[in-house]
Amino acid sequence: MTATSAVHLPDPISLRAGDGASVHVQNLTVKFGSNTVLSDLTLDVAPGERVAVVGASGGGKTTLLRVLAGLTPHSAGQVQIRQASDTARVRVMFQEDRLLPWLGALDNVTLGLPRTERAFGLTALAGVGLADRADAYPQALSGGQRQRVALARALAHRPALLLLDEPFGALDALTRASMHTLLETLLDETGATTLLVTHDLDEALKLADRVILLRGGEVTEDVRPPLPRPRDRAALEPLRRHLEGQLL
Amino acid sequence: MTQVQSKPGHKTQVQVTQDALTGAITGRPALTPVQVAPRRPAPQWVLEGVRWLVPVLLVAFWQLASSVGWLNPRVLPAPSAVALAFWELARSGELWHHFLVSLQRAGTGVLIGGGLGFALGILTGTFRAAHLLLDSSFQMIRTIPNLALIPLVILWFGIGESGKVFLIALATFFPVYLNTLHGVRSIDPKLTEMARVYGLSPLETFRRVSLPGALPSVLIGVRYALGISWLALVVSESFAASSGIGFLAMDAREFFRTDVIVLAILIYALIGKAADALVRGLERRLLPWQVQA
């Protein structure tokens, strides 16, 4: 039961939350039992940078993301997430929407937000084009709409570091393409440092400043697509082929 | 188009073609276009009427059988006799009194048993240690039949109200306990992980994720508990009682008043139905996010 039965668009509130966080990962090792998932990984991400992490399944992509989110403990090494002001807010958008079925879209978006920041919920929901579905339960929304609500939830928190774990993996190609455009626009607005885990090379090359290839728990490639965004797919083809060769 | 007799008395339209090249003649059953019309559901009053058809016919037949004399009133009284008994007892206020006493017993028992079941189900569902410590004991007690406890209950509580309430509370504890425990345990861990990432404290996670997530299951437990509470009520009112619907029936047996006995049974059935409707109403109110089946 939401408080907003009639939807008012709020005064323009920016979802921008200062500069993004910087990420410093040094000699990170993660082991599950005797299985080493990440070994001696070092990675620095500058504030506001958008990094895509690609690699085959079992390469440690998701583990890296979960360590940054504080969900998986690491065995050795150092992880620092810093923001100029204070502790950096880290938020995750998962592959599944993970919306609470008993809350309407807006209540899902504002979940966990301090009272003073609730207004960002509607801004974010309007940002993903779902302000008119603020009261709708997740069950009444399509898969693409649910994922947009999940994105709005992540953005409403105005994270300094946004972690995206194969967020569009379960969507059809057409919906995914429109999500890419939407995400690009919204990321430009928020300025959050972004780490996108994906197995879709096109997605990585289209959205990221930097593409990192993880293989056997190590960084084997670290490239920057040499084109300004929005990027043309054809121009990226040589780089795409190169990375694909590395993947297989 | 040719008509062929495939089986005796069974004619099929056959499309016969001849291949221009080989001259082979082939025949296959002609395809008749099928009209696909959307199925229109029957109107509500028809469905409702069909639902009541069998009970109404049964009662009508029962009345007929009694009036004609096929049924001995000592075995089964006529529906009209039951209605008359209802009228008499209702007018004297006796029925109302017994009904309220029963309702109070059942209500108190359900509140105590269900409340404890809910609280302990949440406790054992949330904390591993509590589950380890308590659950196997509860499961053992659960297997004891209520009736086996009656001699002990009389010794412990005497023949007053508390023994009856105890039996009902004990019977309703388990459905609520088990379903609450199951509800809390079957919360998707991905949702609790999400709550953690989005900065919810453990208490907030419980209030906004675990509790609403367990609620559908808890309500199933409540529905079972309400059903079983009447069963326990019948048991507890069939011994050492001086009031209540169960006493009414036991008392009537002494005087061969089959009409009153049948009336008491009917009242139990109606109360059970009402309790079910109550929980359905609760579900609609508390779980608006669930698609109604």
Strand content of chain A: 15-25%
Low-confidence stretches of chain B: none
According to CATH, the fold-level topology of chain B is: MetI-like fold
In the sheet with the most strands of chain A, the strands line up as 5-6-7-3-8-9
The amount of helix of chain A comes to 25-40%
Q: Please, what is the CATH homologous superfamily of chain A?
A: P-loop containing nucleotide triphosphate hydrolases
Q: Which CATH class of chain A is shown?
A: Alpha Beta
Can you tell me the CATH architecture of chain B? Orthogonal Bundle
Which fold name fills CATH's third level, the topology of chain A? Rossmann fold
Can you tell me the residue ranges of chain A where pLDDT is under 50 for at least 5 consecutive residues? 1-11
How many helices of chain A? The count is: 7
Mean pLDDT across every amino acid position of chain B: 86
Helix content of chain B: over 70%
Structural class of chain B: mainly alpha
User: Based on helices, strands and strand pairing, what is the structural class of chain A?
Assistant: alpha/beta
Distance between the termini of chain B: 49 Å
Q: How is the main sheet of chain B built?
A: 3 strands, antiparallel
Biggest interface, chains and residues, is: A-B, 22 and 21 residues
Number of strands of chain A: 9
Spell out the helices and strands of chain A N to C.
EEEHEEHHHEHEHEEH
Question: How would you characterize the overall build of this protein?
Answer:
The complex is a heterodimer of chains A (248) and B (293). Chain A has 248 residues and is an alpha/beta fold. Helix content of chain A is 29%, strand content 24%. Chain A is built from seven helices and nine strands, in the order βββαββαααβαβαββα. In chain A, the strands form two sheets. In chain A, strands 5-6-7-3-8-9 form a six-stranded mixed beta sheet, with helices on both faces. Chain A has a three-stranded antiparallel beta sheet with strand order 2-1-4, with helices on one face. The longest helix of chain A is centred in the last third of the chain and has 18 residues, at 173-190. Chain B is mainly alpha-helical and 293 residues long. Chain B has ten helices and three strands; from the N terminus they run βββαααααααααα. Chain B has helices spanning 44-68, 79-92, 94-126, 128-142, 146-157, 161-185, 189-197, 202-237, 245-254, 258-286, and strands at residues 2-7, 10-18, 25-29. In chain B, strands 1-2-3 form a three-stranded antiparallel beta sheet, with no helix packed on it. In chain B, helix 6 (161-185) packs antiparallel against helix 8 and helix 9 (245-254) runs antiparallel to helix 10. In chain B, 26% of the residues are buried. The mean pLDDT of chain B is 86. At the A-B interface, strand 5 of A face helix 7 and helix 8 of B.
